[in-house]
Design goal:
This protein is an alpha/beta fold. It has 13 helices and 5 strands. It has 2 domains: 261 residues, Nucleotidyltransferase, domain 5 (2-Layer Sandwich), CATH 3.30.420.10; 35 residues, no CATH class. Helix 4 packs parallel to helix 10 and helix 6 packs across helix 7.
């Protein structure tokens, strides 16, 4: 923990990240590091998301420098997507500010400033070859499929989502940065007071270690975002990027879970944040796309990929 201060320079953020990383015993903070957040575990969402970014340790040091530069440029101390979304809704006059809005760190930013702030942070998060990794499970669809017998697993959405997440890490490396295939990986999950959730994550990690030998260490951050900011603690700046990708991924997956293909899309943000995924998806073969579709939706035998997509988009039952 470093001394509290009002403003942190980008160079300080990078230097203190390196110093902090050097304190870990060998094997805990290895070459590849994933910062991870969850969204939807409180039951307020149609889907559960576990997502984050994966990069080399030295790439995270550069990230801290660049991320802090953007925070300083807009005179804010941290990024939290939910609070940004609240400020954006007020700025767009979608709703009136509530009684807590005075505490919102972005309350004084105009809509243009809010948008440019978000996009500049997304550019930082997605730069340097960092990989977006994530898994998702639609709660209601899983329960429905389990009840109808379509899905035989008895596992809960949280267990399945954690397993999907850890598998996605290995898949992303093999498809997007194959040169890193044999590098050890350590995971840092954002702070949580939910003991059951932490147990599910640790159990999922232990199970995944049996399949993925490059997994070396996992830990939950011990204090929350606001406490970290108040203490001037810059070591976990990457978790703010994990919050960004988990929140946005949940928004996108909720639309898919509800077969909602209407409404405004945040194309600029998505094109930046999910650029690596879009490039990888563009390279998928027709058979790979078909296999993905059939894992997500129940598609009758004999129905083509094109017919299934058209049925989904028109919200007609397949």
């Amino acid at each position: 923990m470093i001394a509290r201060r009002e403003r942190i320079s980008p160079a300080q953020a990078a230097r203190e990240f390196r110093e902090w990383a050097s304190l870990f015993p060998s094997g805990v903070f290895v070459k590849l590091v994933a910062y991870v957040d969850e969204s939807g575990t409180d039951g307020s969402s149609e889907v559960l998301i576990v997502a984050g970014f994966l990069a080399l340790r030295e790439e995270w040091a550069r990230f801290c420098k660049d991320w802090q530069r953007v925070l300083n440029k807009y005179s804010v101390k941290y990024f939290h997507f939910r609070e940004w979304a609240d400020a954006s809704a007020v700025a767009r006059k979608k709703r009136r500010p509530n009684s807590n809005f005075g505490k919102n760190p972005y309350k004084s930013l105009s809509q243009d400033k809010l948008d440019s702030f978000l996009l500049e942070l997304a550019e930082v998060a997605a730069s340097d070859g960092r990989l977006v990794v994530g898994g998702y499970v639609p709660h209601n669809k899983l329960r429905s499929d389990q009840t109808s017998g379509v899905v035989t697993t008895k596992a809960g959405a949280e267990e399945l989502c954690v397993g999907h997440f850890f598998d996605s890490v290995v898949l992303a490396i093999s498809k997007e940065r194959r040169v890193l295939n044999r590098q050890g990986i350590s995971f840092f999950f954002d702070h949580s007071t939910n003991k059951q959730w932490k147990k599910i994550v640790h159990d999922g990690y232990d199970l995944s270690c049996q399949k993925h030998r490059q997994f070396k260490a996992i830990s939950f951050v011990s204090i929350g975002l606001r406490e970290r900011v108040e203490a001037g603690d810059v070591e976990y700046l990457p978790l703010q990027a994990a919050d960004m990708v988990a929140y946005r991924m949940r928004q996108k997956m909720e639309k898919l879970a509800n077969l909602d293909f209407n409404g405004p899309e945040w194309d600029k943000l998505d094109n930046v944040l999910f650029k690596s995924i879009n490039i990888a998806n563009a390279a998928l073969s027709a058979s790979e796309l078909d296999a993905i579709l059939r894992r997500v939706f129940i598609v009758p035998k004999g129905m083509s990929y094109e017919e299934a997509i058209e049925s989904i988009r028109s919200t007609k039952p397949i």
